[in-house]
Each structure stands twice: as C-alpha cells, then as structure tokens.
Amino acid sequence: MVKSVNTTDLKSVAQRLLGSSPSASTKIAGVDLLGPPSFEFEILLLIFFKKTLDNCQIDAILNLTKGKQEGLDMKYVVTTQCLENYGAHCESGRYSDGNAYWKMKGGADYIVSGLERVQDAVAFVAAMCLQNNLSFKEFPIEWQTESEWLAQLPEDTEYRDFILNTAKRVSPEEVL
Q: DSSP E strands: which ranges in 40-146?
C-alpha cells in the first residue's frame, strides 16, 4: 500500500525539476505534475524518487490506480478440490465406526469479482460456495489473479473454451 505523501512538497520539487520554461511539459504518463493533487500524482512521484522505471511500467501502475479509482475491481480465481465420502452412502461414513472412505473428486474454478484482495476472494468463496459435511468436502487449493489464471490455460481452443465456460462467476454484489 502506498502511503500518502505531502503533495505540496512534492509539487515544489517537481516544479524545480521541470524548470520554469513555458515549453517544458508538466505531464508525465498523462499525469499533470503541477495540476491538482491526485492519487496518480502521488504514485508517480513516489516511483520517480524511489525507483527508476521505464514508461511501460509507469503506465501499467497508473492504469491500475485509475482502474481502482473508477471502481474497476481486480478479479481473482479460486480453484477448489472436492472429496466425497463413499462410506456415507450406505453406512454412517464416520471414522469412529470404521466407515469413512474418502475419494478425491474434481473441483471448480470460481472467478470472483467485486473484491480488492485475494484473501477476501478466498474467504467469500469458502463462505458462500463450498461444502463441508460428512458426505462431501470442497476446499480452496489455489488462488490467483484472473490474468495469471488466463495465462496458464491450455492453448487447445476447445479445451480452453470448456474451462472458461464451466468456471463459476461469483460476486458479493450478487448476494442479497
């Protein structure tokens, strides 16, 4: 998380760096350094003074911050694993009775929107979508951003489309 900085001090430093020439640009990556204070301004100056980055990296950071300000939330994918207790089908299914017989089953990919942190996405999926009982258990085994998930999908178009179509889309905004 970026700490808030004193924009008055940073603006005076930026003004000294840019000089007073009328032809000098006051914008870097679309952010006016001499305009009104903004979150992008603070990020840009922190980047400028703390670490040298190329223009593509600066643009990527600014696009992320603009997305946050416009309410464009990050999407996360929570992948789960399921277990089924075959012993619960015809017996008690309890370990104490010697009837537990768990088998690994498939799982699901939950694409979570409307949350800003991956921890919140995992907790939301666990609370709203997963089961934990004597017959069946589903639990998270992996979580990542949607872009990381998309990058690792198979190249085979048919299989990729199947995975994309079977992923479950969830959001706290959809819960009444």
A: 76-85, 102-105, 109-112, 136-145
Mean pLDDT of 160-165: 96
- The C-alpha atoms of residue 100 and residue 71 are separated, in whole angstroms, by 47
Residue given tokens 């277990």 in the structure block: 83
The CA distance from 73 to 101, in Å, is: 42
What is the spatial distance between Cα 85 and Cα 135, in angstroms, rounded to a whole number? 5
Beta bridge partners of 143: 78
User: Using CA atoms, how far apart are residues 57 and 70, in angstroms rounded to an integer?
Assistant: 20
Is the per-residue pLDDT at 142 higher than 60?
yes
Closest CA relative to residue 65, chosen from 23, 35, 33, 31: 31
Tokens encoding 137:
């258990």
Q: Where are the domains of the chain?
A: 7-69, 76-174
pLDDT of residue 3: 41
Contact 170, 120 (CB under 8 A): no
> What does the pLDDT read at residue 157?
94
Per this entry, what is the length of the chain? 176
Q: What is the pLDDT of residues 71-114, one digit of tens each?
A: 445 899 999 999 999 888 888 888 788 888 999 999 999 999 99
CA 165 to chain centre: 20
